[in-house]
Amino acid sequence: MNSRYDLKKIIDIDKWHKLQDSLSLVTKMAIITVDYKGVPVTKHSYCQSFCQAVRQDDALSTYCQKCDARGGLEAVRTNKPYVYQCHFGIVDIAIPIIIDNQYIGAIMAGQIKLRDSNLPLERIVTRPPNAETDRKFNDLQPEYRSLPVLSSEEVSTIADMLFHLCNYIVEEAIDKNSTIELYKKTLSLEHPGADYMRPAAPTYEHIQAMQSELSSTLIETKIKNSTASVYRSTNSLLQPAFDYLYRHKHENIRLHDMAALCHVSPSYFSRVFTRETGENFSVFVPRLKVEWAKQLLETTDLPVNQISDELGFAEPGYFIKTFKKFESLTPAVYRKIYSREHAL
Fold first, then answer.
1. Contact 204, 192 (CB under 8 A)
2. What's the CATH number where 73 sits?
3. Would you put residue 172 in left (φ > 0), alpha (ψ -120 to 50) or beta?
4. What are the 10-residue block averages of pLDDT along the chain, 344 residues in total?
5. Has residue 82 been placed in a domain?
6. What is the CATH number of the domain that holds 251?
7. What is the pTM of this model?
């Protein structure tokens, strides 16, 4: 399993560990953060004495590691928190951190017991009967009895909270880092090798290029899980146009420009494009932008006029008219209906 993200470079580990400690105190759970390889990037926050003793035992710690590995894999496979029982019947949770469909790490929480049996859990690793293990467990009975006890509802609520909170924080950190790196990259075009902290004033053209690239980056961040995130043309001649269209969602793209990009005449480009997609360029592009607009209406609180600007429409009135043409209702009504249906 690979990831293009390095969790240790994305987040401030010291600040993250302070947050982890606070979450551990509030939830009564021990918590540790691992990268996509399963390697810890933080120390344990409030590891219970029972689990500390077990993990220090050479024979028993291997079963703990198997539980961690299996729990993490199940969380990645289901793309949601996975609640399970360890080899001692203690409740643990593997909470995946997944950004842009990339698994970049996990929050391992738990070391608690359930007050009720309303949450059917799998014991993912089973130890063979062993007299020595039974003796060790009996010696640790006081520590075992002192493990925190939570209800099934509390465990489910905490799992969801940690999943949404941690993914949100990491996603915001990635967006911030990407914006900073993009800004540095753009400034370096003016003075290669110059100190980023003391750049010369960039030209107007570079400012425009930076704004355009930043806008594209932000749009790509907001429009996710698109059913049309990429288009592979059966005609290689058209692929540069499709690539440009999907990478520059914020632009008002014209047929003449795409024809020039593909090194053909506008009339020939129009014929080939219609044959490829079954639609004229003047229909395909606004319909695609409406699909992107629907995602922004569903997943963000951006005002309609800002969505119009970010998708390259000349003005909000034209965006609303175009949206209504394809969806038979306005963007505001679409958002209201979507929100009502998903609130039920």
1. no
2. 3.30.450
3. alpha
4. 67 88 92 84 91 90 87 86 93 87 86 88 87 91 94 91 86 71 58 47 47 53 55 87 88 92 93 93 94 89 88 90 94 89 70
5. yes
6. 1.10.10.60
7. 0.52
